[in-house]
Each structure stands twice: as C-alpha cells, then as structure tokens.
Amino acid sequence: MTDWRPDRLARRLPYLQARARLQTELREWFAGDGFVEVETPILQVAPGAEVHLAGFSTRWKTPDGIERPRWLHSSPEFAMKKLLAGGVPKLFQFARVFRNAEGSALHHPEFTMLEWYRAGAGYETIMADCAALLAVAGARELRWEDKVCDPTAAPERLTVAQAFDRHAGVDIFATIGDAAKLSRLSGVAMHDGDSWDDVFFRVMFDKIEHRLGVGRPTILCEYPIAMAALARAKPDDPRVAERFELYACGVELANAFGELTDPAIQRARLEADMDEKERLYGVRWPVDEDFLAALDHGLPDCAGIALGFDRLAMLASGASHIEEVLWLPVR
Which residues contact 89 (CB under 8 A, 6 or more apart)? Predict the structure, then answer.
C-alpha cells in the first residue's frame, strides 16, 4: 500500500511518463481522423459477454430505496454500440475496466481499455488503424521479455487456420467440436471435463501465441465462428468470423470484430454464453436488453476494437510488469 512513496514512484516514473506521452499521441491521432472521444457509464446491467470472465458486482440503491444489481463493466463495448445506433459514426474511449480474479505481469483487476468503432467500415479498416497507431506510438521498438517488434513494420496477416497448421500441425476445421481429436493432433494435454474451447485456448497458449508479433506485428484473423460471440460471419466463409487479434512480442494487444448487427442472432449467442457460464461457474448475469434494443433499432454496419492500453504502454516503454505503467496499482 506504499506505491505512492517517493522512492517507489521514482522507479516507475520513466514508464509512467512514457505512458502519458503515448496517450497524448493516440488522442491526437484519433482527433486528426475525425473521431469523437466519449465517456460511458462504468455501472452496467451486464459487465460483458465473455464466458470465462469473472466480474465485479455491486448494488445501486436509488433514492426511493430500491436496490438494483449492477456490474462494473469489463469493456465499454455495449454502451459504445448504443451510441453508434444513436448516430455517432466514429468514436473512441480510454475506459477504466474491471476483471475479477486476474493478476500477473500482463493482467490487473482494474486497467485501461482503448476502444474505437467506425460506422460504415469493415474490420480490415480497423486492421489499418492498428498499423497506423503502432507507427505513431513514439517507440523505436516494442519489447517484452526476450522478444522485439518493429512497430512501424507492416503487420503480418495470419488466419487462425494457418497459425494452427504452422505452429501446431493441426487442421483446425477437422477438429471443430471434438476436443479429444484436437488434443491428440496437437499433442496438447486434455483434462477431464475439458471442452473444445478449453483445448483450443491451451494450444494457443502452449504453441502459438508466443510466436506471434516477433519482428513485426501479427494480425491473427478469421477465428472459428464459435469463438466470436459478438462478430458477424465472414460472407465468403461462414465457418469463420470477422474477428482478429493484434499481437506484438508474443503479447495479445487487441481484439477486433466486424460487428454482428442482427439482434436475434446476438440474443441467441449471449444466452448460449450465459448457459455455458452457469454450467462452468454457477454464475450468470442478465442480457443487456437495452443493447439488444439498440441493435433492433438499427446498428449500422460497423467494426470496432478493444486494445489493452496498459500493455501497449509496457511494450513501448520497456516495462517488465503492468504495475510499472499504472500510477497506483490496486492493492
């Protein structure tokens, strides 16, 4: 509880100053491209959509004494899409977000997410945004552990199927839904009760992620459709979604979608995810009906992305732990 002490703060100060400069540079880039910066509520009906996410819950006591359950959001995505549906075409936000049961050199329970959305654009436009933002980040190189990445280099574009074939020797589409087969072909262990998703993530962690974004950034795209609850299917290949993740130095920096706009499909996916969450963890939260109402009103064709700003600040400043780029870590 003494991170404020002058000696401890002084050790982090070069990283914190680099973080501040980076935030200024990114804000200038968005302003130059006609984006508006928004702020949306942290308290939400539902914190997000991820099955494996643990949220922070609280209760809102209204002046008339009624208590309403609320969650600290894990992403401002639902709220920002509501603004898209309301007519804001290009928006971004540096949002404080919250994820429970997280802590490591790359994870913290409270952190900053940079999210932006474009109406009338596809997810390939967001890929171009990523390349542009890395190039203006003010760092000669991005560094994590023993890996280096040139932020000005054109990103490598790699599909999930190509990554599994190259690094794990697996035809991912020949294993869909069959966890045992994916385990056997990849050589990655399967534990009792593991789903196909569990083995997929283990293969990603053990064999693929640390090889991405080395030398130059990697855009890992075209995830199997089951791995993208908020993304639309790729028109020319419905097996995969318009989803990509941005990697540098083996670190995942961002997750992006060509956004799903059909409210019926979105409701079905959110409810299926909550069923799975309840099965695995005994927890569920409500579907955000206001979000679905925004989709029903008419969410324009759009694409968006969530980028871990603290992680980018780490890689750009040479920090070795996320707490080095946080002004005051949670204790």
Answer: 118, 119, 120, 300
**Residue 199: inside a domain, yes or no?**
no
> Is residue 196 situated within a structural domain?
no
Q: What is the CATH number of the domain that holds 255?
A: 3.30.930.10
Q: Which two tokens stand for residue 120?
A: 């009338």
- Domain membership of residue 188 (yes or no) is no
Torsion of Cα atoms, 164 then 166 then 168 then 170, to 10° = 60
196 φψ region: left (φ > 0), alpha (ψ -120 to 50), beta (else):
alpha
Measured between alpha carbons, how far is 158 from 9 in angstroms, rounded to an integer? 40
CB 131 within 8 A of CB 155: yes
The Cα 325–Cα 310 span in angstroms is 7
Residue 45's alpha-carbon distances to 42, 94, 228, 288, 324, in angstroms, are 10, 20, 21, 6, 32
CB-CB contact of 200 with 223 (8 Å): no
Give the pTM. 0.95
Rounded CA separation 161/159 (Å):
5
Tens digit of pLDDT at every position of the chain (331 positions):
799 999 999 999 999 999 999 999 999 999 999 999 999 999 999 998 888 889 999 999 999 999 999 999 999 999 999 999 999 999 999 999 999 998 899 999 999 999 999 999 999 999 999 999 999 987 899 999 999 999 999 999 999 999 999 999 999 999 999 999 999 999 999 999 889 999 999 999 999 999 999 999 999 999 999 888 889 999 999 999 999 999 999 999 999 999 999 999 999 999 999 998 998 899 999 999 999 999 999 999 999 999 999 999 999 999 999 999 999 999 9
Q: Do 154 and 128 contact (CB within 8 A), yes or no?
A: no
Enclosing domain of residue 313: 6-155+216-325
Count of domains forming the chain: 1
CB neighbours of 215 closer than 8 A, spacing ≥ 6? 148, 149, 150, 153
Q: What is the Cα–Cα distance from 261 to 265, expressed in whole angstroms?
A: 8
Distance CA 78, CA 152 (A): 31
